[in-house]
Amino acid sequence: MSIKLMMDGKEISVDEDATLLEAARENGIDIPTICFHEATTPNALCRICVVEVEGQRVLQPACIVKAANQMKVQTRSERVVRARKTILEMLASTMDLSDAPEVLTMMDEYGADASRFPDAHRRESQVKDDNPMYVRDYSKCLLCWRCVQVCADDAQYTYAINFDGRGYETQIGTFFERTIPETTCVLCGQCVGVCPTGALKVKREYLLEQGMTPDQISVLSMGRKKRKA
Amino acid sequence: MSEIDLSALTPALEKIIPLGRSGLLPALHAAQKIYGWLPQEVAAEVAKTLKVPLADVHGVIEFYSLFYNEPVGRKIIRVCTDPACALKNADGLLDHLCAHHGLEAGQTTPDGTLTIERSPCLGLCEQAPAALVDDKAETNIDLDADSYELGRPRSIVGGSLRMLTANCGNGTTSLASYGEYAALKKARAMKSEEIVGEIKSSGLVGRGGAAFPTGVKWEGAAKAEGDQKYIVCNADESEPGTFKDRVLLLDDPHRLIEGMCIAAYAIGAAKGYIYLRGEYPYTLPVLENALTEARVAGYLTEDFDIEVRLGAGAYICGEETALFESIEGKRGFPRVKPPFPTTNGLFDKPTVINNVETLFNVPFIIEKGAVDYRKIGTEKSPGSKLFCVSGDVAKPGVYEVPFGVTLRELLEMAGGVVRTLAPGASAGGGTPQGQAEYHSAPQLQAVLFGGAAGAFATSEHLDLKLTFEDLRAAGLPLGSGVVMVFNETRDLRDALKRLGHFFAHESCGKCYPCQMGTQRQMEILERVARGVALPDDATRLQDVGWTMTDASLCGLGQTAAGAVLSAMKLWPEMFEG
What we know:
heterodimer; A: Ubiquitin-like (UB roll); globular; B: alpha/beta; Glutaredoxin; Rossmann fold; 5 domains; 6-stranded mixed sheet; 5-stranded mixed sheet; 24 helices
């Protein structure tokens, strides 16, 4: 069965199970997303996809709210734009977005000022290079949770990673900061695959960026194999 | 790392094993009791025993402030520095303690005997300044007189009505003094729909802050399909300035148990939980003892029993879905709603979750009937309300009044506004208790209404009737009943800075607006308090505040800017650089 709703003043028709995000995309209306990923359980945590739904006290996350008959939705109202712009400006004052091209594009689109919050305490940490497969640079992590989800019930059931701290000081972490080889990690690489920024990066890519040549990298990996043998 | 003897852990975990993952917080509490903190080997053993992934156990330890993954002192002093205690020179107290022991807040003495910490509100605001010393409350701490009270905190109860507080301050909590569960007996002769109907007609709404109609909640859970249903009492009272539930729990636990038994019968629940905030450890034996008495008397049986779960330092767990997650042994992340608890609550089963004070109303409504109950209060706000009056009044305490008394009347009951000596005016830097300077006509500067997640009122609101409808019309939240009074000598920027710090400390970090917004808000409020606000800080504060209010996932983020935004409206000049 299909339902009819108003989105940005336009009547659209979608399947009754559709979320507002699906409804928008099917009808060529752009709603930005950060944490949302087709393969992971939606947590509606980045709130960048919030829209204004008539009759609702607060903005609603389009990634999980279902479209309903007669619903009136504004995807670019003043409230929506203020929320999105402020979230983007806070992200820029919190983390290193240099490896997050999609977020940078959004910032341009919303006119977000990367230096809106002077003297802000940034989340910074050392690059963790502790396994042959990938490196972790949590200064670039925007806490979308996808890696934790695919490592757990959304895909791999490995449970190698979880969270350190809470609130602003949250970071993805292992049991008592153990190195990856000391955890249950099976190096499946799914976390790297779903990471929307450069926080998780394939080791080879990282080394190339660091200026190493492919030859140097093969020597390095050969060396590692030799040591193991 | 030194060898850790795990032999003491096994017997402690044995009875927790059947709880599985849900036993994680109880297991970590039990382990920490033995070792003082949670070493890696101990955490790993807990993980193995309960079959929980190591990383998940780590995530849980990291989430809760009262769990430690590094050594702490054998004695821990947690000094509250939130607004009500700050008015009584809590900073001076903390500085004094730290200097005396050669520590900074958060540090442990080299010999491992003592840790001193700065703590969020401990719910002891009417006996400020206060601290938690291990599991004892230290209250009315007076450095000059070198006096304090230590142990189970006193109950200071006043007001014009003693309905919910009838047994408070009586000095006994025994079942013998409470008497038989007469309301439960009456309820058991009624049909489920009749009980729900009675609660609905009483007009009772939740007293934890959200003011949701209790009967509607019960009806939803009663009608929901489910092989197992739960009744949960939210005793995670941690809204700064709130201490009423502490008094009810300590002084009259049987009324709560009776209320929960009635709720369980009405919705068909076979299991109940009381989720008690971790900073109220001295309440635990009182509750356990009352539950034992109720079991012996046959009120709690195999068909319906209640378990107490102790929180571990996380304000967010007062949010109902985060509380469920916590009982389930997880980090206290709020869930997205819908689905709502009445259909998908604890363990994804139909659940009624009510605040302590809400449940205290239940035996009265059943015993006297909704019609009589509605004779108290106003038409739209029936019943009585407990207000937590703290700050610059002569007699801070819990005040029970019928809905409809004015703010002025409430403040008069509490002895009126007082002007205290400025901190530092006496030796030792403390504000002496009992030596308050009773100004001829001390001016009320502001009242923080509803808690940290509340809003400010001024003397213009003195004749406001304290009802849901009147407060709503005035744009003030009743919240959890906080009435924190600031006299005209107070610097409200200091209180705002503390609220900012509180929310930044307590945000769970799940959704972006609150995770980063509480941090940015705190940073700006710190500048404002120091008098070094930057140009445009006021606009930044507005944008952050409204983004949190409008776009956050749960009630914490949605209210984290409430008090700040209300202050900006009342006193815009305060935020100018």
